[in-house]
Amino acid sequence: MAQVPQTFFDALAVRTWCGLALESLGRAREEIDAINVYPVADGDTGTNLYLTVESAAAAVEAVFTAYDVGKPTLADAVRAMAHGALIGARGNSGTILAQLLRGMAQVLAAERETAHTDGTGLRLALRTAADSARQAVAHPVEGTVLTVASAAADAAGAATGDDCGAIARAAFDGARAALAATPGQLAALERAGVVDAGGRGLVAVLGALVETFTGEAAPVVAGAATRARAGTEDDPAGAEDCADDPGEGGPAFEVIYLLEADDAAVARLRDRLDALGDSLVVVGGDGLWNVHVHVDDAGAAVEAGVEAGRPYRIRITHFGAGDAHSTGERTPRERVQRAVVAVVPGEGLAGLYGEAGATTVLARPGEPPASGELVQAVRRAHAREVVLLPNDADLRHTAAAAAEQARAEGIRVALIPTRSAVQGIAALAVHEPERRFDEDVVSMTSAAGATRHAEVAVAEHRSWTSAGICQAGDVLGLIDGDVAVIGADVTAVAETVLDRMLAAGGELVTLVLGDDAPETIAGHLETRVRETYLAVDTVMYRGGRQGALLLIGVE
């Protein structure tokens, strides 16, 4: 559908650009995924860029919706775009794109009351974007999206006049030429016969900017070599994707989280994470940051964030066998046979599940993951067979929809209807990838089903429950999803809940402590079990900001 061209860069142009960029990335997503070989050939750069822009576009739409009369200022729109991209950034390229948009916003929002800017402002915004993105990457590499962004800014700077359309087209042409040259700059791309995937995505975004100001669709990228994802019976999603074998292999985990912290703490965090792994990108500012790093010790990366400030929306992905960083001869990238994907409610559990080899999706209180996030996690697990653990009764339908979509892509998925993270822990404890898939799923399902689950939380408002009326601030003990105890003391309620659960028998008690739980509660409950219930063992984990004060599992 033809677009009405925008003469100036104003709030409406921002809205139009985000919508067109999302459409463009939607069309190019599979192509970009297919050419993703650097820094890790995990086949998801196109998807990550799409999700990042989707979050940016949604934030801009929310700003427009908030105005009953009139429209937002340019500053309102670009700040919303940058914030949406920051909180929704996925993967290495998505995180860098978020910083590019933030760099543009810093220029375009400099004058709060300005209704629009012209080509001069756009030219400066593109330069600031490229420079800030390069500064956000710990070790910039040429032949990547950073090179393409710099070329776009250089071309825009060399263009004459103040017409936004002309500046945008110059940036697009410069980016397209730089993209075509990336195989000559990065050996991994040359061996695979592809251009840089992140750079290809940025060209699509800049093409949408051209269309915003001219009303004409930018031409398809010329000379952008791609590899067909033919697929095989064993690997229908394209096992022929190639990575470079680093000999001993690259880091095993990708860790991403949002972080509330001051500048000084983030500077220390950069140094610590740089020593832990690679592909480090830290973007953001004004107290909110998006952190991305590849490491072997996922727990240490999360702990570093905790020391720096308040990390949340933590995502830990375990790279499948064959995912490798690019330093050696090209080798086929094989899928692992089986993987586990789990939704977890807190950072501590994300680390625990991740260290056990699971790909995790963090569900913050009030922020349940959508089916698209679960599908993305299944793809990133890069396995022929996936066991999906929703760990929440309310997520069962969402997880079922994600499983169906993944099956349509040729992945064998089994959904185990776990209703709590402690049931997921029990299932993961008996997981054996070497067994037949059906046998493994039956064993995991049986372990989860044999685990009763409970939680201790604080009531947010007055309401009716199965145990009577509770007031805001009351401590609630829920067993298998129903309120069983209402009290005033966290430890007393937890003890009552535990006694009721163990009255029916049990061999193992699992305690998962939230950050706001009393420091003494774990020791008290462990002593209670040891002195009152013979032959019952207790294990304790730190769950982080998981919503509930305490999760309890009894097997």
Q: Any key phrases for this structure?
A:
555 residues, alpha+beta, six-stranded mixed sheet, four-stranded antiparallel sheet, 18 helices, 46% helix, elongated
Question: How many DSSP H or I helices?
Answer: 18
What proportion of the residues is helical, as a percent range?
A: 40-55%
How many strands appear in the DSSP assignment?
Answer: 20
Strand order of the largest sheet: 17-16-13-20-18-19
CA gyration radius, whole angstroms = 25 Å
Proportion of residues in β-strands: 15-25%
Determine the mean pLDDT: 84
The shape is elongated
Explain how this protein is built:
This protein has helices at 11-34, 45-66, 74-88, 91-108, 119-136, 145-158, 164-181, 187-192, 197-214, 263-276, 298-308, 347-355, 371-381, 396-408, 421-429, 437-449, 490-502, 521-532, and strands at 9-10, 116-117, 242-244, 253-260, 277-285, 288-295, 310-318, 330-332, 336-344, 359-362, 383-389, 412-415, 452-458, 463-465, 468-470, 475-479, 482-487, 508-514, 537-544, 550-554. The protein starts with 8 loop residues before the first strand and ends with a strand. The longest helix has 24 residues, at 11-34. The chain has 18 helices and 20 strands. The model is unreliable at 222-248 and 321-333 (pLDDT under 50).
